[in-house]
What does this fold into?
Amino acid sequence: MSYKLIFIFLFSGVRFIQGDPAPYYPSPFPIDGLFLIGAEADQDLEELKKSLLLELGGANIKISRILEAPPVLLANFDKKYMDKVLNIPGVAYVEDDAAVELQAGGKKFEEPVLPEWNLDRINQRTLPLDGNADYAGNGGKDVHIYLLDTGIYKGHEEFQGKEIISFDFKAGGNGIDCNGHGTHVAAIAVGKKYGVAKNATVHGVKICGCRGHSTKGHVTKGINWITRKRRLPCVVQFGIASDEGGSPTLDNGVKELTDLDCVVVAPAGNNGNDSCLVSPARSQEAITVGALAKFDYIHHNSNWGKCIDIFAPGQSIMSAWYISTYDNDTLSGTSMSAGHVTGAVALKLSSGMKADKVKAKLIKESTKSKMHGRLNGSPSRMLYVKPPQDKVKSKPKAHGGNVKKEEL
Ligand SMILES: [Ca+2]
It folds into this structure.
């Protein structure tokens, strides 16, 4: 290998020669004329805005700061100016803004509704289900969960007043869920009946409209709000995934959140494809969650592959719905799976575990090598949350005598 090649490999991805253009990351389904401009870490965004307006002529150009650190601008301009923008000093990269998708489907798109199985499944190593769905610990008390999703239906009985409407991507918006997805995921994480961490607090960070439409730009604004306002201990769950072009902005946002002591949970995505193609699932720092079907197979819609860290129930999950205080509905998807892991993270944080230890701990404690069917390179790891000690299964010895506690 020549020295020149070694040099290029060592510095790949870094603009090491003044005047090299920044990289451009296209989306297969871009929003025409709308771009996220990532700036170098020490770049003054106001100065960069001035440079952009100068290069682009200023006419009809709208530029807004959507993430302070790492710095990102959202700008509209004609793509014919792309080469100019990529050569402006201080620009680290440009990516297309594009739609992101919620990672769930309603029951009308799914198989027949199954009896509630999910909370029962994750506190035992093997099937059959034992009818116990309790978890050890204090239910995630004092932990703050931030859901980048459709908001939360405030006042649902599942939340017992522990839900907080925290952010709306629309100026003047009320942050209330008018879609259902966010309320459903929130109750899987903290709901009094449907939830894993029943004493944690959940914050709605609304990045989707009523029809579930969102963009990388909207999600980035939500990330920015959390980076500035978060309360610790902190878990952030994404309810969305990008298209298969990925997103350096979302990936960088995850890294920033973990640097700020939040644990980040991401759905693997619901396209039945490689999870390493989408953001934030492909992020190294996030806990990426695939959907487990009943009987321990990968759910047919779930993404798969080596970017998944763990699987959790994601088929036919009953949880709260947004129509009324007592409403519920059944959805499937990797967002539902991620809701279980978010609750499990809250239990760990509430027990005093440091945020940077949680991912490795959940992986270490997962139920390994028990999944069935084709895994497509995914790790065979299912979420495991310990039951209370008094619910640990007891078995008499074969010849009578003392009862031995069996660790499940
Ligand atoms: Ca059980």
